[in-house]
Amino acid sequence: MSNPKDNLLDWLRDAHAMEEQAEQMLTRLAGRIQNYPELKARIERHIEETRRQAGVVRQCIKRCGGDTSTLKDAAGKVMAFAQGISGVFAEDEIVKGTLASYTFEHMEIASYRILIAAAQECGDRQTATDCELILKEEIAMADWLEQNMPAITQRFLQRKLADVEAKH
Ligand code: MG
Ligand code: FE
User: Fold this and answer.
1) In Å, how far from its chain's centre is CA 130?
2) Which residue from 32, 33, 63, 110 lies 20 to 30 Å from 90 (Cα-Cα)?
3) 51 near 26, Cβ under 8 Å?
4) How many A from CA of 26 to the centre of ligand 2?
């Protein structure tokens, strides 16, 4: 791989796998939430954003001359740990799920920052612009979680203290 564009293409494929993983994780999480309507609504909004992002990344891959028919193979090699955290339906799953989502958003933020730099280095302005728009959505999601995490945590603890049956 002596061509920087090969690395860019490779990282776009990783990003696509990451978005597919994100959609799976968020869908599973949203389906489990019963008592935190704001969190559920925000996650559902981000699921829509995530689907669109995957499509944008696919377009970037095509524009870079990559084959999008084999993309499914890459899915699943990213972020087994997030799946591990959010897949366990523990008593405190609402807190664990929030933690996993916040962590995942930050991996996405890092990935798109790297892609933007790589695209600029390759002179691929369209990919850089596309990734900048995606980056904004990831930052907005991370910010929302950051602002709402304390209230979610406290609500969970209060519900537990009140011995409410369903805590998620
Ligand atoms: Mg994303
Ligand atoms: Fe995201």
Assistant:
1) 16
2) 110
3) no
4) 9
The one-character DSSP state at 73 is G
The total number of residues written for the chain in this structure? 168
Q: What is the mean pLDDT of residues 41-48?
A: 98
Identify which has the larger pLDDT, 158 or 1: 158
Going by C-alpha positions, the residue among 83, 112, 107 that lies closest to residue 12 is: 112
Q: How far is the CA of 159 from the centre of ligand 1 (A)?
A: 31
pTM summary value: 0.89
Residue 158 CA, ligand 2 centroid: distance in Å: 29
Q: Which residues contact 4 (CB under 8 A, 6 or more apart)?
A: 118, 121, 122
Q: Is the dihedral of CA 97, 103, 105, 107 positive or negative?
A: negative
